[in-house]
Amino acid sequence: MTKIEKILFVDDEADLVELIPEILAETGVACIGCASVAGAIEQLKSHSFTAILSDLKMPGHGGQVLLKKCLALKNRPLFFFLTGNIQFSHNDAIQLGADGVIYKPINYTEILEFVGKLRAS
Amino acid sequence: MLMIKNTSEIQGNTFPDEFSKKFLSSALDSVSDFIFWVKAKDLSIIYLNKVAKNLLAEFNTNDPNLKITELIPECDSSSYLDILTKMPLGGRKEGKVTFIGRDAIKIPVLLKAIKLGDQSDFYQIVGSDLRRDFEADELAEKERFYREALDMIPGAVFCKDYEKLRGEFVYWNKGAEKLWGMTSDDILGKTDFDLFPEKEARFFQDKDIETIRSGKKIEIEEEPVTSPTLGLRIVKTQKVPILIGEKRYLLGISHDISEKKILEEKLEQERSISMQAAKLASLGQMAAGIAHEINNPLSIIQGYNIQLQKNLIPEAQAKLIEYSKKMDHAIQRISKIIRSMKNMSRDSINDPYENTKISAIVDEVCSFIKPKLTEKSIELKIVNLSKGDFEINCRQFQIVQVLLNLLNNAIRAATDLNSNWIKLVLESDASHGLIRIVDPGRGISDKIQERIFEPFFTTSEIGKGTGLGLSISQNIVNAHNGRLFYKFDGTNTNFVLQFPLAISSNTNSSKEVI
């Protein structure tokens, strides 16, 4: 059974919002990119996602605001933080209620592996 | 003016000729004592000198019947006159009496009388005004008072006599004794060359002579002096010439500013250390944010590079060009960030002043501040960036530094208030451009307002703020002929930067054509 993974990618970096969905699309993963938490919340209203990949710190609302919204959903997607802050550990992410953390600069192999894992689960 | 009523009454026909008369008259007028000639027979006054006339101006001194007794209240004079009248020829007598002078002033006088003449006996009475002695006493008292007062002064007060150009010390107060470790007696009559190393003495005397020649007070901000007891000291000295007729004095006062100097140097040193520390602290904070900020462009380069590799087929040329452009852009961003980091640690004191667009400054500031905004999840709203843009003549990097400081403060205020916005507003009129930094704070209390621009004043907890930001910023802005001030807009805290608009070097600017 081939399930189409849907991923929501949230980052205030416009180029990344364009690039990541493009790269993932080539591996057969549907990915929607959002440049702000407000836009991501809009997306959550109309789509359901397997996973959310969100930047931790963004101008205005940060990733934690999105996580809170996400935790309140019935079928909550997996939630991963993206951050360049190495002080923010995997445990920190878990404690906040997320499922893990991916560090910047983005290692694309890691992203693809991550998606592969999503598929397998 | 000799008042001789009847020459024959004095010395018969032996009275001096006209020349002798004039000579005698001027001689008697120039003495400071009263001189009367009085007839022995009835004590009427036949001559009185100028001093006596002045003294007795109330009386009609031309009245030939004016008697000396009228000038003296009976109380203490009758007995004296009694004796006087019985005095033999050539006899001498003296005693104290009180004259009633001008304006009914009682004048204590010491009278000395000599009985002269043979046929028409008369007395020459010489009176010394005893008030002069009181004056001398008073003067001595005043001098004592001034000496005491001068001794109370913490500075070293001295006076040198330059009448013969040698500059001997004639006065030296307690402060001078303390500073130079020599008593007044040690130095009286000595010159600088007797007391100080030659080089110093030469300098002191050169300045003394300069002062006397100019006739004006001079100030020596700092001069080194070698004190036998205290060693090398730095003093600040004021010198005043005192010129009385031929006499030339140099009055000086020296204050030992050695301790103050050392303290000032220390403070200056500490200030520069703190400023450096403040710079480093903000640099450190920025660096952490900047390193973080480099991650995104790096991620972008890497991502497009992956895409490039996948698209290495001829048909993909358009896409390749696009990817390449994006990589270029990302690389430029990294370069800019790294350049800014270099700028941050650089000294901008010798930068030239250049006409610079505020929008360019704000752009640079944004690249610095963005990491922090992201970290604190605060949005910076920039109002009027293109419409309100203006040009100022500045050292760009210094203005960037000022804005960073104000924005950092605003971010701190927003964070403390759990708020998520700060604002930068551009405005300009015909002559000035304004940049307002607004934070969500509800204003600053009057008490704190007074002090915010003071160096080292901070409301942050120890270790968080140096308290130098606003004072340094204000110095920078002042150096640009601008103003930095606090303003409450009715709702929020505003810090306002006001700069004079740059005078365009291009006189045919498009504005004027329109």
Care to give the gist of this entry?
The complex is a heterodimer of chains A (121) and B (514). With 121 residues, chain A is of the alpha/beta class.
Biggest sheet statistics of chain B: 5 strands, antiparallel
Mean pLDDT of chain A: 87
- Across the major sheet of chain B, the strand order is 2-1-5-4-3
* Largest sheet properties of chain A: 5 strands, parallel
Overall radius of gyration of chain B? 46 Å
Termini gap of chain A: 12 Å
Largest interface: A-B, 23 and 26 residues
Structural class of the secondary structure composition of chain B?
alpha+beta
Describe this structure as you would to a colleague.
The complex is a heterodimer of chains A (121) and B (514). Chain A has helices at 14-26, 37-46, 63-71, 90-96, 108-120, and strands spanning 6-10, 30-34, 51-55, 78-83, 100-103. With 121 residues, chain A is of the alpha/beta class. Chain A has a 5-stranded parallel sheet with strand order 2-1-3-4-5, sandwiched between helices. In chain A, helix 2 (37-46) runs parallel beside helix 3. The radius of gyration of chain A is 13 Å and the shape is globular. The model of chain A has no long low-confidence stretch (mean pLDDT 87). Chain B has 514 residues and is α+β, with helices and mostly antiparallel strands. Chain B has helices at residues 7-11, 18-30, 50-55, 68-71, 74-85, 131-152, 174-180, 184-187, 192-195, 198-214, 258-310, 317-344, 358-376, 396-416, 446-449, 469-479, 510-513; strands at residues 34-39, 45-48, 92-100, 106-116, 122-129, 156-161, 168-172, 218-227, 231-244, 247-256, 354-357, 379-383, 391-394, 421-428, 432-439, 483-488, 493-500. In chain B, the strands form 4 sheets. In chain B, strands 2-1-5-4-3 form a 5-stranded antiparallel sheet. Chain B has a 5-stranded antiparallel sheet with strand order 7-6-10-9-8, sandwiched between helices. Chain B has a 5-stranded mixed sheet with strand order 12-14-15-17-16. In chain B, helix 11 (258-310) packs antiparallel against helix 12 (317-344). The longest helix of chain B is centred in the middle third of the chain and has 53 residues, at 258-310.
